[in-house]
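Good morning C.,

I know you're traveling, so I'll keep this short. The sequence:
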Amino acid sequence: MRPVRTLAEALGDGALVLDGGLSNQLEAQGCDLSDALWSARLLADGPEQIEAAHAAYVRAGARVLITSSYQATVEGFARRGVGRAAAERLLARSVELARAAARGVREEVWVAASVGPYGAMLADGSEYRGRYGLSVRELEAFHRPRIEVLAAAEPDVLALETVPDAEEAEALLRAAEGCGVPVWLSYTCL
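The tokens, ready to paste straight into the viewer:
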């Protein structure tokens, strides 16, 4: 069940606790995250592990859960033989798992659908550097389908995370424009 108040309304009352690094909790649960898809691999291979990690953060006091979709892209799943429709279902599942972990909690818990930078799909560390040789328009075209799928899954906010440069930030914001879901944007500075 979605919270009654919006995340923005709740933030008007003060700070909220975000979950910790999802990968840290998954590794503590014994999950192997050495795959190029990182924690997104578990959307297909171990969704119960993702839900358990989210639930652990809720029990620890988190009121905002960030989904396991940071590194999840149609292109990344395609390299593992997963077709577009199945990859889109896995992206939507990331929101469903976070929402399921929040069920039965008395306090409001919001879900932030994670959208990592283009470099996260490359799985080569370039998400921290940016400058992939792509235009803002090309980056926008890459991000838009994933943002549309995540927005359709009805998160409370889109978390445009660890954006490495202004061009990708512009592309992400353009891709999210009109999706009907509020966004937050965080930068990585090296």
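Safe travels,
E.
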